[in-house]
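INFO worker-7 received task bundle
INFO bundle size: 2
INFO processing item 0
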Amino acid sequence: MNKKSVTIIGFGRFGKTLFELLKDDFTVTIYQRNKKGKNLPVTNDLQEAYKSEFIFYAVPIQTFASVITEHKKFFQPDHVLIDVLSVKLHPAGVFRKELKGTKTQALLTHPLFGPDSSKNGFENLPIVIDKFLVNKETYTFWKNYFIKKHLRVIELSAEEHDKLAANSQGVTHFIGRLLEEFGMQETLIDTTGATKLLEVKEQTCNDTWELFTNLQHYNPYTKIMRINLGEAYDKLYNKLIPKQKNEDNITIGIQGGKGSFNEEAIQYYVKRNGIANYKINYLHTAKNVLQSLHQGDSDYGLFAIHNSIGGIVMESIMAMSQYKFSIVEEFAIKISHALMIRKDATLKDITTIMSHPQVFAQCKNTLQQKYPNLAQTSGEEELIDHALVAQKLGEKELPKNIATMGSKILAELYDLKIVEENMQDLQENYTSFLFVSR
């Protein structure tokens, strides 16, 4: 072996930076599968690559393990293997596994710089080193070399590094990608702070998506960092929303419109709990309820979650998957369904019943027996609310061939004609509701 000879495995963005750091002090060989690079000491022969004493691995984090396994047959007792990955526990684990029972040494490093930050030289740029599986002589050699190159050497164990990196480099890259996803752009009125945020975005997004995901997945401490970051966001977001929108009364957003079972449920709830000062927002869908709660337009929300005949209310389940909220209470009320039509229509005019999917689930057998020829449909978006359908029918905004089903109160509210009451398959028909807060 040639003394003071180095091979760099991988020649991507950081491999090129590493070459600039080492080229004046070592005989450097660059290994690439596809031999490229004019006037550069490049080889695609692994046997030749491993003639060097020191082997640096400038490969993606996710391929590191497979590279070490593939190259293991070329390791010699006097080799020193050096990783430059942005995570440390992962390469430490790989080295321990693959070098077990051998005399091959391994040094862990993390140069805390890259092509962008080193373009003006390496003066005072930080590098983390961990003695790991090298002897004192080797460790001292590389520590002194990095100092000679005017790098700022930081001695940390792999575990200490990853703990700190998760809340430093991991956060920075996450915020940079978040700003890109947000679409942050330069404006005419940028402050110094805004300019620095744009710099973070540009710097982190210059790195590959592969590096970003590897930083997040191969450091065991970044998962809790992301969770903590999300909780901090929620806490700060909620601090900006007043505990109560209106100081004179509480505002409650409900899934239905006037005359809906949701209105009946909220009236039951406030009466039972002695709530006198309140205002109802009629929001028609569970998604609207949770969105209004999240945005601070409602102090509380109410929506149906389950029916004793129809089962789970899927509309609510889908909405719940998109928002965070707290359950104050779950309670149930008994409900019954009436079939209603416009007053200028007859049953012979009716071809379609438009109502909420849950209504059809609760009245499935009755409808099949008594009205098998009538099509069943649910409206899009807010029109999924049968109370809104009843309102539109009463206002003649829906054709008279359409009927609806729901609380018989709707007929009185919107001047409709009741064709039949108690359409539910079981008389003991209960719907459970969730009363929720932010």
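INFO item 0 finished
INFO processing item 1
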Amino acid sequence: MIISIASGKGGTGKTLVATNIAASIGEVELVDCDVEEPNSFLFFPDREMKESVDCTLPIPIIDDEKCTKCRICSDFCAYNALAVFPQQVLLFEGLCHGCGGCAIACPEDAITEGTRPIGKIYEAQAGNVGLIWGELNLGEAMATPLIREAKRRAKSDHILIDSPPGTACPVIEAVRDSDFCVLVTEPTPFGLYDLSIAVEVLKDMEIPCGVIVNRAGIGDKKVYSYCEEQKIPLLMEIPFSRKIAELYSKGIIFSREMPEWRDRFVELERKIEEMVR
């Protein structure tokens, strides 16, 4: 079973929820797909590193001797990664999505495939929790191939996905193929607005979802009314708590210090399993 933890905005508590579920239930792989700023692994200081590998993206290599500067490749490229001039062909690597279409379109077979690194994938083990995370190279814009590779390396029957914030391409790639998505929100106008966008995305992807309200007790009740209107199950409330905030700021999984919460996260996971069935 694959459970993704997502949200329409950053800072709602996705990693808080993902790390507590993983630590509470155990025998799970936690994949951090927030590759621009991965931090789930930091909450497992007892982790033992297993391996790290480069993640690469295919890029075209132009053979100048064969190239006739016909411009078919640049006309084909939807991302304007190729520019053909009378004397040379320029490749803008940061725009290339690695689809390989230019090589297929080239009538002179002047384009072959090379690679460029876009980031790294790390794997570690912390007790009975497997950790996988991607780290995008500085200045790199192509997050989705790295997310895809991080997910591909997860092999267990029980996988948790810690998604990036927002609802753009990286989030869609992270939650794709999930059996269930937990949406973490906060009871504020901003939380409700971004939650509603995330819900619409999941509806289009036909992924069932439920909501966890973090920092419950602040703001208003509009998030609760929205979930009731949309018939979205409210899975859990995490209170606006100084103790929880202090533990999180120190990189401590709060259910380990507050044992009653471990049982709640175990029950949460059981509830999700029943809903998926």
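INFO item 1 finished
INFO post-check item 1: The domain at 2-55+119-276 is CATH 3.40.50.300 (Rossmann fold).
INFO post-check item 1: The first strand starts at residue 2 and ends at 6.
INFO worker-7 idle
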